[in-house]
Specification:
The protein is mostly beta strands and 260 residues long. The protein is 2% helix and 46% strand. The chain is built from 1 helix and 23 strands. The strands form 5 sheets. Strands 1-20-17-22-14-13-12 form a 7-stranded antiparallel sheet, with no helix packed on it. A 6-stranded antiparallel sheet has the order 2-3-10-5-8-11, with no helix packed on it. The protein has a 4-stranded antiparallel sheet with strand order 4-9-6-7, with no helix packed on it. A hairpin with a 3-residue loop joins strand 6 and strand 7.
Amino acid sequence: MNMNEMMSWRVQSPDSMGFHSVITPDTAACRVAQMFRLNLPKGASYHLKDDERELHAVLIQGRAVIEQEILGKVQLEKLDSFYIPARHSIQITALEECIFYIAGAVFDGIGEPLVRKFDRSLPIGDIHQIHGEGPCRREVMFTLAPTDKASRLICGLTWGGDGSWTSWPPHQHEKYLEEVYCYFDMPKPKFGFHISYKNSGDVDDMVVHPVYSGTMVQAPCGYHPTIGCPGSQNAYFWVLAAFDPMVRKYDLAESDPMRV
């Protein structure tokens, strides 16, 4: 793998109104993990359905109402999320200008519609977690947890500290999972860096991607630590997609032995 390939893993998602395919197998390095973005003006509606993919959406900005046969009618606030299996549909109506990040993966018959209300006051446990220590401490909230019924996707939100590292020590899970990091609440001039490298301990193998709101970076393989600039924190929606439902697990990461 050359560095030009890793440079192509960074995509800036569109901020124009409408539904956008951002990371799909026909144009991206990831073969399993897929990403979409839905931007709606106030008062607009969108009918979301896919016959082949499971979809998991997080409301990154704004407020909205969703209506779905099983879930009923639910009002979404910022960072609330929902999941629908393939062949299920959902109607989304924007109460304010909205941005949704939407993860997708091939559906394998496992999954039930789900809404998760964002609640940062949840005690530390299965959904709300703290990882790392000191300059590597970060907060994690699962939006689609390993215990939720889905075929391939596990997803969540991560916040780093002021100018600190996340995903450190660097890890990879390329035998089982692909990952995409989707950054939000980092409007320019705030920024961070997302680092991609393939070989353990190889500093010369690294590609450094600048990231800010709307940036999405793929990790089809290799290690992928991130760091925020001083005075800001990295915030991202991360999407794990398993190559097979049997390995839809969160604890498969292998740390870089040179960085532990």
